[in-house]
Amino acid sequence: MPQGLSNAPATFNRLVTQLFRPHRAYAQTYFDDIFVHSRAEHGKSDMENHIDHLRAVLECMRTNKLYANADKCIFGAEEIPFLGYFIGKRGLRADPAKVKAIVDWPVPANQKDLHKWLGLANYLHKYSGNYAELARPLSTLLKKDAE
């Protein structure tokens, strides 16, 4: 698909979603990413099923002339990085590099710096049961008349 068309991402996403619909029990798509996940069932191990699922997905790609960049592929992993998180058998977890960036961030010296830090810290809000309560005093400092 030509790049630069204003609706190209949505059109491509719709195409990929439709093409992989028959595989949705074990393959999810997100724009140009395809996630294939497998578990032990039907008398086969999780890896045996995974190989079968990968074959089906790769065959669908071949049939529809979709190509993958081998350097960007991750096969047989227990977890994978995705949108700043890691997804695996045990669910979603924060990317340690993002956590380190928040921890190592210098103390904000002005509202602009504080706004940047809060934006980054908000990344972890789902891992803190009381993030809003913790962030409220800092958010108050972003008001126009705050000192």
From TrEMBL:
InterPro entries: DNA/RNA_pol_sf, Rev_trsase/Diguanyl_cyclase, RT_dom, Viral_Replic_Matur_Polypro. SUPFAM superfamilies: DNA/RNA polymerases (SSF56672). Residues 1-87 form the Reverse transcriptase domain. It holds the Pfam family RVT_1. This is Reverse transcriptase domain-containing protein. It comes from Phytophthora rubi.
